[in-house]
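Dear H.,

Thanks for agreeing to be a second pair of eyes. The structure we're designing against is below in token form, covering all 715 positions.
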């Protein structure tokens, strides 16, 4: 008999008669809830045949004899097994919950786990999914939540039964989860779930799709309700394979506050059989079956580990190595950079190192080439603070090939960096290093068509190498304003010709010979014709077009070698381009070994050697400490009369103050940082980021964002 239950607006099932009796005893269902057992009619649970006598029997005391407890536990497992095989075709389509298979797995499984650092919602949802997903289980098999005393008492009784029914775990050595990570690991993720929930719990809940099991919401409110201890970070480690085309093996591990409660929840919701006793730990069957690549969950004395591998035969050895580790061959014993990484505290953080992991990840991420990082190591961290989101990357390069920066901008070029710039973009690089990279990696693709050392007439007799040598490597663009044209003013697009005036009925495209009119355009040399005069009526099409274009106010500064620059700027193509720019009102000049290109608002800076309000303080430090900088101030953009419709993107931008992206590649230990700063400095950035994600999710058409399929992943 397949029984469906409707409680508090949610439908559950199908269940067997034995399961319904058990849930009534636990307090999850009551005799007054509605049930359907014949596929057609809804009646109170009490009227389901065979339910009332068993349901009204008292709950068995927790202190039952050990043999009786084992029998009870065995019965529960048998019921779960029967339930997994029960068909759900008896109920009408409008009343039954659609069964969907779990599509997770495949060669990209652990790479998806790796993406956890970039999607906070996926992290929390993934943890819940690992607990609540039951392979090919029908999605309707969730248990209705209840906060009454009966349920708590029943849960406690069941936990006692579980403790009695599961084999005792042998005493394990006091080895931390970090110390269990094997030395051959190529990447480690640490996720401080506790901090993330504290910073964005409500906004995370708002992003979750409807129809998830009630326990997901309860877990977000209180993870200890599942037996989880999130006071310590959740950790994921990836072990590269010898074959880079195979996804890394490894797994996800976390601490438990209540092992019995965690196991009870896992078995009940995932429909798992009793675990198998191993050497000091318990091992459940794989979530997707013995032949699948889905994870397999092991339970230690106070922690769990969900391990997996592309090859099912590799799964249990990986789990056993982690569960029985004594810490002697751990990554923390063989890698100092990893030890330093574990001593830091971030909301999310990633450590990576070793050539093999880079080869594996390169083959998994659309064959990305990560050869330049081989032999190196690094960390990535993400922190959500009040009013500021900060992502940082540190890389220890294996050699000097990746050292191409100057380490910072000079004071000279920062004299041309306005503090109120809407956008600032600059770099201070060693151009000779880029030439070396081009010669080694790029030019061979073109054969002998491009020669760096051959003089070129187009460059005034200079070679390409000499032309590049005219610049010293510092470049800085500052955009301070964008002035929008006034419709119909100053040579803007004119109105149409009068329709009721003289000539209004004439055919403007008529044949002059047939109509007897003058030619529509004067001949060459004629009055007002080419080349002697302008277009008829004094209208200049080029002036009209320029008047209708937005006018940016900017200043560009580039460090130059004056002697080589004098030769380069005399080259015909460059001289022509500079002439056209000056005709449009832009200034091009050299000052203090800098080439300066400026619009009208910054002409004075090209003569005085400095803008009126150059960057200072922390803004100047951003340039002085990095050799690549991109900064965008949002507030000035909102004040512009830009042709952007209100609402949508504009509402999202209102909450953002500015964006900073910077890096320093002047040493083998390079750094990079990204900061997204919000206007509200008193509100945590995770909450603000999640609200932006939700807003984007409503703006982007259905099927175009990454959250649309989340509900399917949970089913």
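And this is the sequence the design step returned. I haven't edited it by hand at all.
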């Amino acid at each position: 008999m397949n029984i469906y239950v409707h409680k508090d607006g949610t439908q559950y099932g199908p269940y067997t008669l034995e399961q319904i009796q058990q849930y009534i005893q636990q307090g999850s269902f009551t005799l007054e809830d509605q049930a359907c057992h014949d596929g057609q009619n809804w009646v109170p649970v009490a009227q389901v045949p065979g339910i009332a006598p068993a349901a009204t029997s008292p709950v068995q005391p927790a202190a039952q004899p050990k043999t009786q407890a084992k029998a009870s536990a065995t019965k529960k497992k048998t019921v779960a097994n029967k339930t997994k095989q029960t068909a759900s075709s008896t109920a009408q389509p409008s009343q039954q919950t659609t069964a969907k298979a779990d599509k997770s797995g495949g060669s990209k499984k652990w790479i998806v786990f790796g993406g956890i650092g970039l999607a906070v919602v996926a992290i929390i949802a993934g943890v819940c999914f690992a607990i609540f997903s039951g392979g090919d289980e029908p999605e309707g098999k969730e248990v209705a939540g209840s906060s009454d005393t009966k349920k708590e008492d029943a849960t406690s009784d069941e936990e006692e039964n579980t403790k009695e029914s599961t084999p005792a775990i042998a005493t394990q050595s006091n080895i931390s989860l970090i110390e269990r990570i094997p030395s051959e690991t190529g990447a480690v993720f640490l996720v401080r779930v506790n901090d993330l929930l504290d910073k964005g719990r409500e906004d995370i809940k708002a992003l979750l799709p409807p129809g998830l099991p009630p326990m997901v919401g309860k877990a977000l409110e209180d993870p200890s309700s599942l037996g989880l201890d999130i006071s310590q970070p959740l950790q994921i480690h990836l072990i590269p394979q010898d074959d880079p085309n195979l996804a890394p093996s490894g797994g996800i591990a976390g601490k438990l506050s209540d092992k019995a409660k965690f196991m009870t929840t896992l078995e009940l919701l995932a429909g798992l059989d009793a675990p198998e006793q191993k050497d000091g730990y318990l091992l459940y069957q794989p979530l997707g079956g013995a032949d699948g690549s889905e994870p397999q969950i092991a339970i230690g004395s106070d922690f769990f580990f969900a391990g997996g591998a592309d090859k099912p035969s590799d799964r249990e050895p990986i789990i056993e190595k982690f569960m029985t580790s004594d810490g002697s061959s751990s990554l923390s014993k063989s890698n100092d950079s990893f030890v330093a990484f574990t001593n830091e505290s971030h909301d999310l953080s990633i450590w990576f190192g070793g050539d093999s992991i880079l080869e594996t990840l390169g083959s998994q991420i659309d064959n990305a080439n990560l050869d330049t990082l081989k032999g190196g190591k690094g960390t990535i961290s993400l922190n959500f603070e009040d009013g500021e989101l900060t992502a940082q990357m540190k890389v220890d390069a294996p050699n000097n090939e990746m050292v191409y920066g100057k380490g910072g901008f000079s004071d000279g070029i920062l004299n041309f960096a306005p503090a109120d710039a809407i956008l600032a973009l600059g770099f201070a690089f060693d151009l000779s290093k880029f030439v070396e990279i081009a010669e080694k990696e790029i030019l061979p693709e073109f054969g002998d068509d491009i020669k760096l050392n051959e003089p070129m007439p187009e460059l005034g007799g200079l070679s390409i190498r000499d032309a590049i040598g005219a610049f010293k490597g510092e470049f800085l663009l500052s955009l301070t304003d964008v002035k929008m044209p006034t419709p119909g003013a100053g040579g803007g697009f004119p109105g149409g010709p009068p329709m009721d005036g003289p000539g209004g009925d004439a055919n403007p495209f008529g044949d002059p010979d047939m109509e007897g009119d003058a030619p529509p355009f004067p001949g060459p040399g004629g009055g007002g014709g080419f080349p002697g005069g302008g277009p008829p009526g004094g209208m200049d099409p080029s002036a009209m077009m320029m008047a209708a274009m937005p006018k940016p106010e900017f200043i560009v500064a580039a460090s130059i070698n004056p002697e080589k620059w004098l030769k380069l700027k005399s080259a015909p193509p460059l001289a022509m381009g500079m002439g056209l720019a000056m005709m449009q009102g832009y200034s091009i000049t050299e000052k203090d070994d800098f080439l300066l290109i400026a619009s009208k608002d910054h002409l004075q800076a090209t003569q005085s050697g400095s803008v009126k309000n150059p960057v200072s303080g922390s803004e100047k430090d951003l340039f002085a400490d990095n050799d690549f900088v991109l900064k965008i101030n949002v507030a000035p953009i909102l004040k512009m009369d830009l042709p952007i419709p209100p609402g949508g993107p504009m509402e999202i931008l209102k909450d953002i103050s500015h964006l900073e992206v910077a890096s320093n590649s002047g040493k083998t230990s390079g750094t990079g940082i990204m900061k997204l700063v919000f206007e509200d400095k008193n509100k945590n950035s995770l909450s603000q980021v999640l609200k932006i994600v939700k807003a984007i999710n409503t703006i982007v058409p259905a099927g175009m964002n990454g959250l649309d399929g989340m509900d399917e992943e949970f089913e």
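Two observations from my side: Residues 419 and 615 are 4 Å apart (CA to CA). The chain has three domains: 1-97, 101-386+684-715, 400-484+549-682.

Warmly,
E.
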